[in-house]
Fold this sequence. Notes:
By secondary structure, the protein is an all-alpha fold. It has helices at residues 5-23, 26-49, 53-72, 77-104, 107-126.
Amino acid sequence: MFGTTQQGANAYAKVGIETGVAAATPHKLIVMLFDGAKMAIDRAIQHIQSNDIAPKGRAISHAISIINDGLRASLNKKIGGDIALSLDALYEYMANRLLEANLKNDVSILNEVSNLIVELRDAWLAIDTTASIPSIAVPANSAQVDALSPRVSSFVRA
């Protein structure tokens, strides 16, 4: 009559994620994208190990979507210059490697992309100036414009 316990837990998790997104800074949103991609890759590895082919494909597709539609789409290539172009190329490489891992059921490729995501996430955390998530100290005289900050989307209100 009221649904399963899992459905209730999923509903609460969805509300928690939506609340986190609504309250997050643009910097934190990028961290959340890295985290989401890493979790999707971790799920894909588990599905390969348990020979669950369809869920593996969905998990890898989710990771590719996060990389292409989230991380790549948030790059501001006009302001970010060479760094943004390099990140774009790296994100494209990661998406292609994920596609290859999906076709070959190759956990080593998934681990390679997962490691890249962790390195990028750590670097992103190191440049955080909001102190809302763990980061290193930023000098007070640092530049006012963050060339790598994501563009403001028409569907996100800051």
